[in-house]
Design goal:
about 150 residues, about 90% helix, mainly alpha, extended, 4 helices
C-alpha cells in the first residue's frame, strides 16, 4: 500500500509540474499578445481604449501567474492555501469591473436600461471585491503576519 501511495504522490507532482509549465507558457503568450495588440490598437481605437484593453490583458496574465504561484507553493509545501485563489478572484473581479466600465461608457446615450444594468453589475462586483479583500485580510491576520492583533482559536 505504501508503494501505491508513493506512486500517486509522484503522479501528483508530475501533474502539478506539467500544469505549472503550461501556466507559465500561457502567461507568456498573454503578455506577448497584449503587447502586440496594444501596439496595433493605438492607431485604430485610440490611446484610452488601447490602454484599457492592455490593462485587461495584463490582469489576465496576473491571474495565470498567481495560479502558477499556487502550483509552486503546492509542490514545495505539499499543502494548498486558499489565499492565492482569493487573489485570483480579486483580480478577476477587478478585470470584469474594467470591462463593464468600458461597455457602460458606450451605453450611456444609446441604451439607458443596459447602462443601469451595467451599473448594478459594477456595484455587485465592488461588493465581491470588498468581501475578497476582507477574506484575505482575515487569513493574513490569523496567520500571524504584520498587523495581527488576535485571531479566534479554532
Amino acid at each position: 500500500m505504501r508503494q501505491v501511495a508513493n506512486w500517486l504522490e509522484l503522479a501528483e507532482d508530475v501533474l502539478y509540474a506539467i500544469a505549472g509549465v503550461m501556466l507559465a507558457g500561457v502567461s507568456l503568450a498573454i503578455l506577448i499578445h497584449a503587447a502586440l495588440a496594444f501596439i496595433s490598437e493605438i492607431g485604430s481605437t485610440g490611446m484610452a481604449t488601447a490602454v484599457i484593453h492592455l490593462l485587461e490583458e495584463l490582469l489576465l496574465a496576473l491571474m495565470a501567474v498567481e495560479l502558477l504561484y499556487t502550483v509552486i507553493v503546492s509542490l514545495r509545501t505539499r499543502s494548498l492555501s486558499p489565499e492565492p485563489f482569493l487573489v485570483v478572484g480579486l483580480v478577476a473581479a477587478i478585470r470584469r469591473i474594467l470591462a463593464v466600465s468600458v461597455e457602460a461608457a458606450e451605453l450611456v446615450t444609446t441604451n439607458p436600461t443596459q447602462f443601469r444594468m451595467a451599473l448594478y453589475e459594477i456595484g455587485m462586483l465592488i461588493v465581491g471585491v470588498m468581501i475578497l479583500v476582507f477574506s484575505i485580510w482575515i487569513l493574513r491576520r490569523c496567520r500571524g503576519e504584520p498587523g495581527r492583533v488576535s485571531c479566534p482559536e479554532e
